[in-house]
Amino acid sequence: MDKQAAIVPVPPRQDPTTSYWQDPPHPLATHRTTSELPAAASTVIVGSGITGASIAYKLLDRHDESSVLMLEARTACSGATGRNGGHTKAASYRAFLDNVANLGEDEAAKIVRFEYSCIKAVHAFAKEHQIECDSWEGDTVDIIFDENQWTRAKRSIAGIQRVLGDDHPAALYSFHDGKETEEKYLVGGALGSVSYAAGSISAYKFVLRIVELAMEKGLNLQTGTLVTGLKRFETDQRGWIVETTRGSVQAERVILATNGYTAYLYPPVRSVIVPLRGTVAAQRPGNGLPKQGLETTYSFIYGNGYEYMIFRPAGSTFAGDLVIGGCSTKAPQEGLQEWGTTDDTSMDPQISQYVRESAAEYFGSQWGKDHPDGRVRKQWTGIMGYSSQGFPLVGMVPHEEDLWIAASFQGSGMVLCFHTAKALVSMLEDEDDVALNEWFPRAFRMSEDRLKHKFRGRLHEKAPMGLENRSQL
After folding, report:
1. Between helices 203-216 and 50-62, what is the axis angle to 10°?
2. Tell me: the pLDDT tens digits for 153-170?
3. Average pLDDT over every residue of 174-197
4. Closest Cα partner for 214 from 87, 118, 83, 76?
5. Among 139, 203, 402, 443, which residue is least crowded by beta carbons within 10 Å?
6. Assessment of whether the complete model's pTM goes beyond 0.85
7. What is the DSSP track for 136-166?
């Protein structure tokens, strides 16, 4: 893993695989607000995914007069956000015991509340602004096949309910034994399952509407503009020179919303933030599954990994389709080669095959026959970012005045980014730190100490449990 973590990331590649969500492309895909790059901006945001878009909107919502420039290397929302699995699912219990051991009960509980609140805020924002993004809220179920995972799930949920209280919405879980799991969720062979609140969404549509709303407030979006370097002003003047393939921009401050690509622009985070390539497939359901479609989203959890799956809700394009991803441990050396790469133009053939086959295998005889047009509608990859401690890095970079970062979301963008943007804007505005600490986890903050922690492997792949993938890619 040390070798993979030390790989120097390359910038986003041209001609990546096309995700299900990006077909057809959004009208903003190749948008440039101005034909030329502006010579200067008060704030330059690098990246147009959910983090960058949410920061831009929340910043401009406070200051309409601000000069905010968003730079995107490829098409708008072409990174992990536009390539995820559509889940808004926290699975907070999967990390809770480890977080209690490492951070204490108060901070562990704060993370649970933060994740739940962020999910609800995403769907509430979509509703408030009438964003057509197939926003769906309902239940999810984790089908558990491993004894250790099952035992720890029970312990962890009991801990959450003790600390938060049984009636807290983030503590509402239901257990189902193997028989009930098969009857209710159509999957046999499990020790049991855990159900709780979650949702699904087209993050691509959601985020690009946020970008449009930010543009209405003055955002300058420049796609097809690869940032090639960052330089401080050589004079006493504060700020940065942002070098791109289309010229340079003087910025009072720069925000890196670049997730798995961050070490490409800021090398000191190499081996601190490590890319991971995820594989996802959109599938037509077998004819044995309920004609009205599934009623919950799923995760399938085993000893050294998991898969996650959503169904496309009624009223959406290709309603009833299943979108499934994960499976990285099914490749040789448990998917070691997927770490360190930023190549989303291709996919590992073994992982690709497993993703195509896994849903039908989980449902077994309940799956029935494949659709006459074939099982797989589309398959793609995307690049996530993971940190050495399993948490995002958010805040001003130590010893780099006016260089800010919000990255490394552990495959959990739809659970973390929207509220992280709120926190970062609060930091940018130099607001009351005490008030921010009441709801924003300290473990997420950027610090000099965190830059010393080198990546040691994906914390949540194997038992004992750590962080679960929650976005998901």
Report:
1. 30
2. 999 999 999 999 999 999
3. 98
4. 76
5. 139
6. yes
7. EEEEEEEEE--HHHHHHHHHHHHHHHHHH-T
